[in-house]
Pollen receptor-like kinase
Amino acid sequence: MARKRILLSTRSTVIVLLVIIFLHFTSLSAAESEADVLIKFKDSLKNNGALSNWDNRKPPCNGDHENWVGIFCEEGFVWGLQLQNMGLSGPIDLDSLAKLTHLRTMSFMYNNFDGPLPDLALLTGLKTVYLSHNKFSGEIPPETFAGMAGLKKLHLANNKFSGQIPTSLPDLPKLMELMLDNNEFEGEIPQFPPDRIKRFNVSHNKLVGEIPFAFSNFSASVFDGNADLCGAPLKSCTTPNKLSAGTIVPVSILVAATLVALVVVVVILHRRKQAPQGPEGAAAASASVTAPADKKALLELDKMEQGRAAPAATSRAVTPPSAPPEKTHQSKKSEPNVKITFLKEDRDKFDMSDLLRASAEVLGSGVFGSTYKAALGDGQQMVVKRFKHMNNVNREEFHEHMRRLGRLSHPNLLPIVGFYYRKEEKLLVADFVENGSLAVQLHGNRSRGRPCPNWATRLKIIKGVAKGLLYLCNELPSLTAPNGHLKSSNVLLDRSYNAVLTDYGLVPVVNQEHAQEHMICYKSPEYKQSGRITKKTDVWTLGILILEVLTGRFPSNFLQQGRSNDTDMAAWVESVIKDEASNVEVFDVNMERAKNCESEMMKLLKIGLECCQADIDSRPDIKEALEKIQEVKEEAS
Ligand SMILES: *[C@@H]1O[C@H](CO)[C@@H](O)[C@H](O)[C@H]1NC(C)=O
Ligand SMILES: *[C@@H]1O[C@H](CO)[C@@H](O)[C@H](O)[C@H]1NC(C)=O
């Protein structure tokens, strides 16, 4: 009996050991597959529908190429996660992510994560962490960041964090960006070593006390909206502020505004002179209309990214946003007549003095000139666009036309906020739009292996474009082509991917020769045939845009020197859908779609073709086109 019991217990020990060994090996092999780690991570999230292409049929990475949305690969390993604006929530399973040994950058911005900050110290290799615009809350333990010696950028803005700013942050040797604005941090700002932090924002918290010396040369606006901060750049902590706001402030604002206007223009003019030598200038030059489609989109993307400081750009070889341009005073004298005319004066948030500190970054360059971005202190980001070749009308007519455009107001139009007139060139000032241009989203994302807009988003964009066009048509009845320059790089996308048109209504002021060579309405079949554009020319440009959006192909007929055997977009689409035996996929293979939307996609494609008809009489007008487009649904009912 006793013997039997011993035998039994030896046997069970062996079994237990075997089970342990088995479990050990399975967990090891799980640790080895990044796919399994990611899928486990995904399963821990709530509302993970946006990650539907994360599955085991393909590995997440093929070398440097990403097969799954929202990840970045290098040499077969995941080095970045960019899960932004995907409606995600639930816990962030960092225990899983810690097994991704190559992970260096991680963004979960614009989601619905809540609760305390996840334990980032598990991921000691991270260089950049972006968690802004979620619902995280609670205190962050002081030692949270102690082990993260490689951390360069930490963005926690627009959450509900409270308590003290963690004291482990000043000890991080590489930390250069710290964005904590719009939270509920309280107490004093800890001391940081001077010159280490390059970007910083603690506005709209509950901080008190003296601003550490390390931040004394930052813009006062990054301390806005706190309980009781003092010291440079704010008022000194000991001397009470005796200036009478009633007299001194308006005068100084006036002086500052004038100076700012001067400096901005000088900076922009100065940059123009230098542009061709710099790398941006070189890129701009090669991104002219004659560049091959993909190359052009890529170049544009690079420039957009530099401008937007997209998280993905942080660890890749993309150069960081250019240094602030020299705020030179030298040539002020030679610009006697500088005056920016503001068309939207109802904006009380528009504080000119903030432009003084804004660095002008090059966003991109088109056939008219370059586009720059300037960030105002209150968070507004303005875009300044330079136009050469705009001397078709004299100064009075130009002012008059701009006022007319300035009065337009529609959700699908980017308003012109102000302008600057000089004989040789004009500047138009507009708001900055979050998600860049449709062109970059369609063509740039694909070449980078990033997610492209899905069918529902593309349909929404087309509906927005058509509404914007109809509005322009109604409001600018005297213009033959009220838009005149509709193309995917002139369709911007706001935070919710609504279409916002830009560069509209400019045909009358652009030099005729330049317009005929470069503006899209002059690429139409009617212009080619009869040298005239008509009221339906904008409809043709809409048709081409619809085809581009659905096929994901860049319309080569806009390119000045497209390869000679390139077929015209509409003709190509027509030939593909007519040939029933053809197995050429007409729709963009990168466009994610629900199962039963094919017929609706085909409906929109046919509307696009109708709008492209060379015969003007059989082409719908914009109102009819919009009505048809409005009938297209995300899914067949
Ligand atoms: C503050 O000045 C230091 C050098 O004195 C410089 O490195 C740093 O970039 C400046 N910061 C800002 C925001 O201008
Ligand atoms: C700082 O944060 C506030 C609030 O989010 C924002 O409005 C402002 O533009 C930011 N300033 C800078 C310089 O980033």
Q: What stands out?
A: The first helix runs from residue 2 to 32. The pocket of 2-acetamido-2-deoxy-beta-D-glucopyranose (ligand 2) is lined by residues 157, 181-182, 201, 203-204, 219, 221-222, 378-379 (CB under 6 Å).
